[in-house]
């Protein structure tokens, strides 16, 4: 919506993961290095954990985008799968027909597929996103898949990405054999204030940002505080900031603008991302982030499902806002025309009188323009 107004080639703060916008913070760089190290070894498990919205899926997609044809990679975002369901899903993702097949026959066909890849001097990579949703017995099934070997080399390798609950599953006593096959693990952390600023500027530079609107230095500190340095929350807030700048025709976003947007978001669906924060005088004080402050996803709702829901809500809100902007611009045009006509008649009336009894084409056909709640608010602000 605001992209063309500010001369941007794309929306810079999308919720959906996009490798183009991958930002390599020290923690993300470490996680990426571990994944690449695991690839070079061709065996063992790599485990990446982190709070919701810290970029685990983006790291995975960035890795997949960098692979050559020698590696056939699939990525699954799991729900609570049984071991048999996992095997069927993995086989289906590799394009193996599994309909009406039992587990044993599915495993047989999967092994044959992996052997065929080996003959082609290729190998398989499985990236399991939202792995914290897997029951322990299903995680153990992943270990069993790594037993597909030829010449003491695994035919398939698995990387696990999940929220912090995944660590608890792996630490269970019955997961000892799985733990012994983990060659590296990394825990992602939220950004600090400087990393948050660099992250925002990085995403803006990817879409040709020319400094309009600019962000004041103080605004970065407030953004860090109220998003807790979590990339997804940063995207939600800064996207709204740019929309606010567009609607208010601003060229600079200052601290007060950030506070204004935060106030508006407190009463909206997206306001829940800062439910534990309250606006006050101490706006530059860093907000501590730990396991106690990490948001918990609703039961049965995965990180990917939450993202899709937020994207849908965002699109709906954008459409509503576009209609309101068009209405307000039509209103300004109407006022200008009326003033001009009255000026020629040497009459001077206030905006409220001008609009009185004016009908306006909208969904609310039974209301005059002046009776609409948003028109009353607008008139109050203008006066």
From TrEMBL:
Q: What is this protein called?
A: AAA family ATPase
User: Region annotation Disordered: residue ranges?
Assistant: 275-302
- Which PANTHER family does the UniProt entry name for this protein? GENERAL SECRETION PATHWAY PROTEIN A-RELATED, PHOSPHORIBULOKINASE _ URIDINE KINASE FAMILY
Q: Gene3D superfamilies per the record?
A: P-loop containing nucleotide triphosphate hydrolases
Which InterPro entries does the entry mention?
AAA+_ATPase, AAA_22, ExeA_AAA_ATPase_DNA-bind, P-loop_NTPase, XrtA-assoc_ATPase-like
Question: Pfam families in the record, alphabetically?
Answer: AAA_22
Identify the species of origin: Photobacterium alginatilyticum
Query: Where does the record place the AAA+ ATPase domain?
Result: 42-204
Q: Where is the composition biased (Polar residues)?
A: 290-302
């Amino acid at each position: 919506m605001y992209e063309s107004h500010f001369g941007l080639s794309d929306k810079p703060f999308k919720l959906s993961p996009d490798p183009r916008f991958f930002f390599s913070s020290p923690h993300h760089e470490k996680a990426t290095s571990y994944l690449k190290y695991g690839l070079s070894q061709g065996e063992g498990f790599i485990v990446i954990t982190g709070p919701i919205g810290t970029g685990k899926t983006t790291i995975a997609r960035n890795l997949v985008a960098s692979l050559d044809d020698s590696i056939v990679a699939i990525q699954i975002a799991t729900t609570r799968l049984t071991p048999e369901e996992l095997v069927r899903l993995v086989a289906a993702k590799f394009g193996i027909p599994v309909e009406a097949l039992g587990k044993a026959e599915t495993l047989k066909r999967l092994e044959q597929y992996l052997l065929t890849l080996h003959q082609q001097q290729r190998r398989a990579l499985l990236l399991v996103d939202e792995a914290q949703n897997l029951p322990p017995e299903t995680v153990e099934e992943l270990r069993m898949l790594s037993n597909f070997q030829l010449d003491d080399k695994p035919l398939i390798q698995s990387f696990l990405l999940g929220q912090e609950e995944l660590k608890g599953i792996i630490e269970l006593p019955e997961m000892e054999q799985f733990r012994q096959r983990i060659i590296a693990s990394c825990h992602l952390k939220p950004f600090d204030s400087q990393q948050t600023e660099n992250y925002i500027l990085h995403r803006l530079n990817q879409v040709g940002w020319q400094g309009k609107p600019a962000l004041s230095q103080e605004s970065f500190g407030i953004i860090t505080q109220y998003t807790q340095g979590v990339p997804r929350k940063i995207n939600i807030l800064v996207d709204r900031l740019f929309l606010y700048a567009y609607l208010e025709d601003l060229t600079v976003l200052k601290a007060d603008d950030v506070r204004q947007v935060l106030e508006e978001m407190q009463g909206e669906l997206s306001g829940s991302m800062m439910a534990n924060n309250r606006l006050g005088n101490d706006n530059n004080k860093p907000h501590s982030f730990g396991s106690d402050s990490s948001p918990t996803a609703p039961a049965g709702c995965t990180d990917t499902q939450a993202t899709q829901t937020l994207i849908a809500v965002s699109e709906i809100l954008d459409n509503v806002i576009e209609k309101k902007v068009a209405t307000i611009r039509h209103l300004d045009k109407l006022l200008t025309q009326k003033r001009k006509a009255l000026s020629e008649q040497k009459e001077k009336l206030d905006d409220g009188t001008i609009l009185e009894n004016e009908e306006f084409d909208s969904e609310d056909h039974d209301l005059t323009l002046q009776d609409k709640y948003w028109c009353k608010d607008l008139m109050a602000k203008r006066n």
